Amino acid sequence: MAKSAGETPLMQQHNAIKAKYPDAILLFRVGDFYETFGQDAIITAQVLGITLTKRNNGNPDASELAGFPHHAMDTYLHKLVKAGYRVAICDQLEDPKAAKGIVKRGVTELVTPGVATSDKLLEHNNNNFLASLHFTDDLIGLAFLDISTGEFFIAEGDKEYTDKLLQSLQPAEVIFQRNRQKLFKEYFGNSFFTYSLDEWIFTEQYAQENLLKHFGTHSLKGFGVEELKNGIIASGAILHYLKDTEHPNLQHITSLQRINKDDHLWMDRFTIRNLELMGNGEQNTLFKTINNTVSPMGSRLLRRWMLMPLNDITRINERLDTVEYLIKETDTRNKIASHIKQAGDVERLASKVPLKKINPREVLQVAKGLQQTEAIKTICSASSNSYLKRLGDSLNSCNYILEKIITEIAENPPAAANKGGLIARGIHAELDELREIASGGKNYLLELQQKEALNTGISSLKISFNNVFGYYLEVTNLHKSKVPETWIRKQTLANAERYITPELKVYEEKIVGAEDKIFQIEQQVFQELLNELQDYIAPMQVNGHVMAVLDCLGCFAGNALQYGYKKPILHDGHELSLKDSRHPVIEPNLPAGEAYITNDINLDAATQQLIILTGPNMSGKSAILRQTALITLMAHMGSFVPASAASIPLTDKIFTRVGASDNLSGGESTFMVEMNETASIINNLTSRSLILLDEIGRGTSTYDGISIAWSIAEYIHQSPFAPKTLFATHYHELNELENKFPRIKNYHITNKEVGNKIIFLRKLAAGGSTHSFGIHVARMAGMPPSLIDRANEILAQLEESRDDHQTGHGSIEASVKNLNTPKMQLNIFDVHSVTFEEIRNLLDTVDINRLTPVEALLKLQEIKGKIK
Question: Is the pLDDT reported for residue 766 higher than 60?
Answer without folding.
Answer: yes
